[in-house]
């Protein structure tokens, strides 16, 4: 079973030490929730895990291999939900979901399944220009479902989502873990993940 | 290779839905050239003399005008991060985006150039060389412009910075392209200049995707 670990991670952004000496270990079916006040480095840690940034110190290991050794391989393993939803207003909802599904190799849910499980199947042909913030977030979550990635990295995924969709996101996460997947979430909402490990982060000085 | 075709189809579809962008570039190109007869006077020998150079400079500026948007929208809406994180190598993604940029700006500029050459009284025998120089030169504008567009991401007034970065690098293109047309008109043969221009194109083709991809990764990481 896959393992994802971080050893002594530190990160400097704009001459400020954002993360210092972070250690974590995650096994298949594992879930980790990042907690801490604003500015504690939750988003930075998720971006490090995604490979968008390099740690200033320390190592990130997937099955005991450094993830930066083969960035392309790591890209196939992760799906990252950031603050921006990456929804093209010129495309319809299904075109948006379909593009990312093809781009990531169509290994997960089909776009139709994904849109149905997030309750936007009826919007498939609508131009994404007319979506609300919550609906755009659901389109972004569809991309994650279609990717078939092992590790989901979610940065405040429930922003703009209604309580019903947040609950179904909790169920989707449970189903993903049941199949052997892993999740790392930074959230202030209770997604009903009772057995998750908590990684408290503090604002460094 | 399937990743390349996926991104190519996306870029073409996006360009078709934003087709006004292409019209604006062509519009700028036409207006910029049309201003010259008003500025220097309508004497036909004079216009024929400066015509090729004016057309080339206007094409250069028109291409720069459209360059800023190459990565800007993807950067702003978060798509760029996901493109960097996708299994498709960023270098291929850059190639696809640059190719579509050339299709939607370079090709319309080439197609409009004969009309402007007619207006500037450029002799007919120079037209094939002018079109050949544009066909070899406009892809270089897109390729080198992509490096500047990637470097200028996230900067305030990115468009101005982009022009400052890129225009000096494009001087060789201008020299060889206009040199080819002049040499042909003087009876010296355009071959040497066109071959040099082709060399610049091949060099840009080999370097620009890697340089742009590196700059884009840097932009996403900050």
Which structural traits does this protein have?
heterodimer, A: 205 residues, alpha/beta, Rossmann fold, 4-stranded antiparallel sheet, 9 strands, 32% helix, B: 222 residues, mainly alpha, 10 helices, 0% strand, elongated
Summed up:
The complex is a heterodimer of chains A (205) and B (222). By secondary structure, chain A is an alpha/beta fold.
Task: Tell me the layout of helices and strands.
The complex is a heterodimer of chains A (205) and B (222).
Chain A lengths: L2 E11 L2 E12 L3 E5 L6 H9 L6 E6 L2 E2 L4 H7 E4 L11 H11 L7 H7 L15 H15 L3 E5 L7 H16 L3 E5 L10 E4 L5
Parallel strand pairs in A: 3-8, 3-9, 6-7, 7-8
Antiparallel strand pairs in A: 1-2, 1-4, 4-5
Helix pairs in contact in A: 3-5
Chain B lengths: L1 H16 L2 H21 L3 H24 L1 H8 L2 H7 L4 H30 L7 H25 L6 H9 L4 H15 L5 H31 L1
Helix pairs in contact in B: 1-6, 2-3, 2-6, 3-6, 3-7, 3-9, 6-7, 6-10, 7-8, 7-9, 7-10, 9-10
Helix-strand string of chain B: HHHHHHHHHH
Low-confidence stretches of chain B: none
Q: Can you tell me the CATH architecture of chain A? A: 3-Layer(aba) Sandwich
What oligomeric state is this? Answer: heterodimer
Order of helices and strands of chain A: EEEHEEHEHHHEHEE
Report on the architecture of this protein.
The complex is a heterodimer of chains A (205) and B (222). Chain A is α/β, with parallel strands linked by helices and 205 residues long. Chain A has one domain: P-loop containing nucleotide triphosphate hydrolases (Rossmann fold), CATH 3.40.50.300. Chain A is 32% helix and 26% strand. Chain A has a 5-stranded parallel sheet, with helices on both faces. In chain A, α3 runs parallel beside α5. Chain A is globular, with a radius of gyration of 17 Å. The mean pLDDT of chain A is 91. By secondary structure, chain B is an all-alpha fold. Chain B has one domain. The two termini of chain B are 30 Å apart. Classes of the chains: A alpha/beta (205), B mainly alpha (222). At the A-B interface, α2 and α3 of A face α1 and α5 of B.
């Amino acid at each position: 079973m896959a393992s994802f670990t971080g050893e002594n991670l530190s990160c400097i952004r704009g001459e400020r030490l954002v993360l210092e000496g972070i250690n974590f270990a995650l096994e298949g079916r594992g879930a980790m929730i990042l907690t801490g006040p604003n500015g504690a480095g939750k988003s930075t840690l998720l971006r490090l895990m995604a490979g968008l940034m390099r740690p200033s110190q320390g190592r990130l290991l997937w099955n005991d291999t450094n993830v930066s050794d083969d960035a392309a391989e790591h890209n196939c393993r992760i799906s990252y939900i950031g603050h921006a939803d990456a929804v093209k207003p010129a495309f319809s909802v299904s075109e948006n979901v379909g593009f990312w599904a093809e781009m990531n190799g169509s290994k997960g849910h089909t776009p139709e399944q994904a849109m149905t499980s997030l309750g936007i199947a009826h919007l498939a042909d609508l131009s994404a220009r007319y979506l609300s913030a919550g609906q755009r977030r659901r389109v972004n979550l569809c991309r994650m479902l279609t990717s078939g990635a092992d590790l989901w990295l979610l940065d405040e995924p429930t922003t703009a989502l209604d309580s019903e969709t947040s609950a179904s996101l909790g169920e989707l996460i449970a189903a993903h873990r049941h199949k052997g997947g892993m999740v790392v979430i930074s959230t202030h909402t209770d997604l009903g993940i009772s057995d998750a490990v908590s990684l408290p982060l503090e604002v460094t000085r | 290779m399937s990743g390349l075709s996926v991104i190519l189809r996306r870029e073409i579809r996006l360009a078709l839905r934003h087709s006004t962008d292409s019209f604006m570039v062509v519009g700028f190109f036409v207006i910029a050239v049309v201003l010259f007869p008003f500025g220097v006077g309508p004497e036909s020998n004079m216009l024929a003399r400066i015509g090729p150079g004016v057309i080339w400079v206007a094409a250069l500026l028109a291409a720069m005008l459209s360059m800023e948007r190459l990565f800007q929208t993807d950067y702003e809406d978060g798509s760029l991060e996901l493109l960097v994180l996708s299994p498709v190598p960023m270098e291929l993604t850059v190639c696809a985006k640059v190719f579509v940029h050339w299709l939607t700006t370079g090709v319309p500029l080439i197609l409009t150039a004969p009309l402007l050459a007619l207006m500037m009284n450029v002799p007919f025998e120079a037209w094939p060389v002018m079109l050949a120089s544009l066909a070899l030169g406009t892809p270089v504008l897109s390729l080198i412009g992509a490096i500047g567009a990637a470097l200028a991401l996230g900067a305030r007034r990115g468009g101005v910075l982009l022009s400052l970065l890129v225009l000096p690098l494009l001087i060789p293109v201008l020299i060889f392209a206009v040199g080819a047309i002049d040499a042909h008109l003087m009876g010296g043969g355009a071959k040497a200049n066109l071959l040099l221009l082709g060399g610049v194109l091949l060099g840009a083709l080999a370097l620009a995707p890697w340089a742009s991809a590196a700059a884009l990764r840097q932009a996403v990481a900050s």
